[in-house]
Amino acid sequence: MDEILEILEKDGRARIEDIAKMTRKKPQDVRKAIEKYKKAGIILKYKAVINKELARDSEARVRALIEVNIIPQKDLGFDKIAERIYSFPEVSSCYLVSGTYDLLLIVEGKDLNTVARFVAEKLAPLENVRGTATHFLLKKYKEDGVILKHKEENKRIAISY
Predict the structure, then answer these.
(1) pLDDT per residue over 109-123, tens digit each?
(2) Dihedral sign of CA atoms 126, 67, 142, 116 in order
(3) Residue 47 domain-assigned (yes or no)
(4) HEC profile for 28-93?
């Protein structure tokens, strides 16, 4: 992968001047390369990795990993059914994977029931879906290469009698 892309993947806020110094290129060349990557659809979006445990508010959302076993469609393979599934607003990510299941979804909802209803009412009834397995995320330790710090636990001394 291009070194400009590698730098931006690690730090989407890297300044053009800093990237130019790191790559020994002219700032205008770096700017042109970034614009070219945007137009080509290589750079899709810049995002921040948020430690939601520390930023938790009253609108905390539940996330689940859902494995989906599907029947590929003739002449279309997995793509058409995957497109149908990733079009649901509850689905934040969708991956074709090898192994027991075909698709791995990351789904978000306001609570456990919302995610359960999504699976029962929208996902499982789809014609080409043969089965699902839902795993609710309980705690994240690392995301996108960043180790997440956690709230300090109450460190009271145990009292014994």
Answers:
(1) 999 999 999 999 999
(2) positive
(3) no
(4) HHHHHHHHHHHHCCCCCCCCCCCCCCCCCCCCCCEEEEEEEEECCECCCECHHHHHHHHCCCCEEE
Write the single-letter amino acid at 16: I
Within-domain flag for 10: yes
Phi-psi region of 145 (alpha: psi -120 to 50; beta: other; left: phi over 0): left
Q: Using only C-alpha atoms, what is the Rg of the chain? A: 21
The predicted-structure confidence for 51-90, as pLDDT tens digits, reads as follows 777 776 656 789 999 999 999 988 888 999 999 999 999 9
What is the C-alpha to C-alpha distance for residues 20 and 10, in angstroms, rounded to an integer?
15
> Residue type at 50?
I
Q: How many domains does the chain have?
A: 2
Q: Which residues pair with 64 in a beta bridge?
A: 107, 136
Query: What pLDDT is stored for residue 152 in this prediction?
Result: 65
Q: What is the CATH number of the domain that holds 77?
A: 3.30.70.920
DSSP state of 161: -
Residue 16 DSSP class: H
